[in-house]
Amino acid sequence: MRFPTLIVLLAPLALIASPAAPPAPSLIPDGGFESGNLEGFAVYGAQITREPAEIFLGGHAVRLNPGTGFAYSASVKPNTRYTFSLQGRVAREGEFFRIGVNGLKAGEINEGGNSTRFQKILVHFTTGPDDRRVDLFAFKDGGEGPAFIDEFSLVEVR
């Protein structure tokens, strides 16, 4: 009568071995900037960089000098949860950059980043019944050094 004991011991292993669901795809085309340009983005002085130390993943990222930024206008569904994220860092200790979501009837939502190492910054938001389009942005407002942005992503939370 050891057979039932064996089933009980193997059942937890089956739960551990089950594959995880794949991540939802980003709604932003070329959010890793691998095309080497910012086509499709509204650009306010931001530039593509190819310097390895300024890139989180791949061969390109965006460099934001002080007073520059960029944005992407995305179609969204009403009454839906989303996560906007990116990898970003500043070149100088004590400086910061901002990312955010504009165009929601509920108002702008933004977060800041101030690490000299790449960090993932997340902005979670839920659209209202009348929201159909949002602008996702990143900018470097002041200071003396640049910020670097990579892996710009918007996903619907399911």
Task: Describe it.
The chain is mainly β. The chain has a single domain, classed as Jelly Rolls, CATH 2.60.120. Helix content is 9%, strand content 41%. The protein contains one helix and ten strands, in the order αββββββββββ. The protein has one helix at residues 3-17; strands at 42-44, 47-49, 61-64, 68-75, 81-90, 97-102, 109-113, 119-126, 133-140, 147-156. A five-stranded antiparallel β-sheet has the order 1-4-9-6-7, with no helix packed on it. The protein is globular. It starts with a helix and ends with a strand. 29% of the residues are buried.
Summary tags:
five-stranded antiparallel β-sheet; Jelly Rolls; 158 residues; mainly beta
- Strand order across the largest sheet: 1-4-9-6-7
Class from helix and strand fractions: mainly beta
Global geometry: globular
Strand content: 35-45%
CATH class: Mainly Beta
Largest sheet: 5 strands, antiparallel
Distance between the termini: 44 Å
CATH architecture descriptor: Sandwich
CA-atom Rg in angstroms: 20 Å
Number of strands: 10
Task: Provide a quick synopsis of the model.
The chain has a single domain, classed as Galactose-binding domain-like (Jelly Rolls). It is 9% helix and 41% strand.
Q: What is the topological layout?
A:
Elements: H1 3-17, E1 42-44, E2 47-49, E3 61-64, E4 68-75, E5 81-90, E6 97-102, E7 109-113, E8 119-126, E9 133-140, E10 147-156
Antiparallel strand pairs: 1-4, 2-3, 3-10, 4-9, 5-8, 5-10, 6-7, 6-9
